[in-house]
Amino acid sequence: MTLCAESPDTGQAARGMVRSALADWGLNDLVDDVRLAVSELVGDVVHHAVPGECLATPGPQRQLDVTLTKWPKWLLLGVMDEDSSSPTIPVGEIFSPRMATSLPEALLPDRGRGLLIVHSPADALWWAPNESGGKTVVCRFDLDGHPTDGSRARKDA
Predict the structure, then answer these.
(1) What pTM was computed for the model?
(2) Burial class (CB in 10 A: 0-12, 13-18, 19+), 77
(3) H or E stretch covering 127
(4) Model confidence pLDDT, tens digit, residues 82-114
């Protein structure tokens, strides 16, 4: 699904596509997790993506593509944008845990919080540059042991 980043209903359209596809595939128990992921990834494009020089021409609106692919063992959600810069994925602890009591906002990095949110329900998260410019961020949801009663087993159980 190709969407316009400047459209006020971009996020709503992406979440609707996810809900509809997952319902068609009988994966209703994943709706909340995948909708959260697509909301964050689309929001990152809307708020941060700047097309690379090779793609930018005066006047066009920024586009993004949302893909949802079901394999026997995985569900893959991909969001492609026209910005060739790498996404910010925070790693490690930046601040001392002792600062948490006096300055809790210091525990959150300035950039990359959306990808931390996406990584929480997803089983894997990565990105790759696109051949013609831009990038695709992909998150994977494992379907092994996928329950049929509508409840998803916790990853850490």
Answers:
(1) 0.75
(2) buried
(3) strand 124-129
(4) 888 888 765 554 444 554 455 544 455 555 567
